[in-house]
Amino acid sequence: MKHFILIQLLATVFALPAFAQLSTSPDVFRTEQGELIVYPVNHGSIVFMFNDKTVFVDPYGGGGLFNRFGAPDVIFITDIHGDHYNPQTLDGLDIENATFVVPRAVAEQMGELYGDQLAVIGNGESAEVVNISVSAIPMYNLPGDETVRHPKGRGNGYIIDFGGRTVYISGDTEDIPEMRALEGIDIAFVCMNLPYTMDIHQASNAVLDFQPSVVYPYHHRGQDIEEFKKLVDEAGIDVEVRLKDWYSN
Description:
Layout: H1 2-14, E1 27-31, E2 34-42, E3 45-50, E4 53-57, E5 74-76, H2 87-91, E6 99-102, H3 104-110, E7 118-120, E8 126-129, E9 132-139, E10 155-162, E11 165-169, H4 177-180, E12 187-191, H5 200-210, E13 214-218, H6 225-234, E14 240-241
Parallel strand pairs: 4-5, 5-6, 6-7, 11-12, 12-13, 13-14
Antiparallel strand pairs: 1-2, 2-3, 3-4, 8-9, 9-10, 10-11
Helix pairs in contact: 5-6
């Protein structure tokens, strides 16, 4: 009887979806200024540790998810939706000395809450924040007008330079021309979740166009990221797909 129960338990574990067994451990990349440590946190939330600085991207899911990282120096927010600009999560963080990099639409929702902590940039603009260079690029749904969930010009994707390592954060976007035209991206975080952004076929096709050295599918709830990896791998192009567990929290 005990052996029968054990066999049933093992069968259940191995029958779990592949993403349930993915790693939540950080990855480390070498840069010209030391190590860049990349932590997958939750859905579209990422934490970077670099050059004694802590950088949060779209903190969401409650402050408790971020306690282990300490106080952030920079917080990037891509858009106004609650899984990107999440006041409840921000309320649970030590953000007194943080600089927020945000699009104007987010700044307008924040009002006077964070005062001179805000660095407001729009599509096509750049800034230097705590010695980190960042550029904002478009993120939107096609056709890019006001009828879509993410109209062009409201939110920001970001290109961040960490010691010569160029990191692309897609935000909520489809496979737009501005993404396909990217060059020299070392690490890319690319969203894929219908009906809000794009499916794995659009995402893989776009990735094969701009060819980052490493790509992380993120913000992918409900999508088959194993199939996304297969689509990229089968193309025979030198793009490494890294799968992480963004949803165990």
